[in-house]
Amino acid sequence: MNLEELDSKKLAVIWEHCTANPDLKEKVEQELILRKGNRKFSREYLYSINRVGNKALTIHFIPTTSGYMKFGKSITVDLILEESEAEQLHKTYSSQPPVRTYGLVRCKSLIYGSISAEQEKALKDLGFDCADVGFVEYESEL
Fold first, then answer.
1. DSSP conformational letter for 141
2. What is the pLDDT of residues 20-79, one digit of tens each?
3. FRET pair for 35, CA 20 to 30 Å: which of 13, 29, 42, 57?
4. 120 and 81 in contact (C-beta within 8 Å)?
5. What's this model's pTM, rounded to 2 decimal places?
6. Any idea of the CA torsion for 63, 46, 102, 16, to the nearest 10 degrees?
7. Minimal CA–CA distance to 127: which of 63, 80, 87, 89?
């Protein structure tokens, strides 16, 4: 199996379910570590879904990242943005040529009890790094 050809979502599923094969799990984990710091999901991308599209975000973290370690496999969130931060993201989101920024995103959990009070505080105060995101789900238009 050529792990480099698999996307992060497939690698995450393999990593979570290959408990009977520790060698494969280690190889998958190494491949995921190589993919840390991906630039697939910018702050503007998350902003466009959550604020422009008015949709909740379900963030699935890449296993082995700090986001995964802090918040688990996935969280459903709404972005927390100061007014100046929202204005800046709107400006970079709609600029030509597009500007994409990366880094920490602060959020609030939308599913009561899905994370602990300590995790909720960390999510609101510090957030997670966009580079930890493996994939994003959101409700599509009908």
1. P
2. 888 888 888 788 777 666 678 999 999 999 999 999 999 999 888 999 999 999 999 999
3. 57
4. no
5. 0.80
6. 0
7. 80
